[in-house]
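This part of the workshop introduces the protein records we will be handling. The question running through the whole workshop is how a given chain folds. To make this concrete, we reproduce a full record directly below:
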Amino acid sequence: EHWGRAPIAPWQAKPAARCHCQVPCGIFHDDGRIAMILEDAMTIRKAVAQSQELHASGKLQDMHQLVRWINTKEDHATKIMTTVAEYFLAQKVKKELLSDHDYGDVLALHHAVLVAAMKTKQSSDMGPVDALDKAIQALRVVYEKK
């Protein structure tokens, strides 16, 4: 019985290990990095919405602004990919603390965010943005404080 809460996945039950990080441990915190990724995803969503509106007008000045929104969208997608790769995968995922199955599951969650962020760069539709939000929410569970 989980008393009305979702069951804890095996990788969530293990304590965080001391690590040797690119950035000294304790400077960044998981919840802050997740908040940053969520903010980047919200910016991507706004950029897609604004791009769609500006594209509809066809005015030259609006096309200029459209390019700026597309660049913003791509910058924030890159930020998500960098954070997932350089902070979470390189520093936080510890293979030695996980079973092979759980390690595969955790890698798949991170990979889903990387791919979803990449796909937002390739599209001007909301579908990939929705997929990114879903992937981030699935990954977020791994790093929520218990």
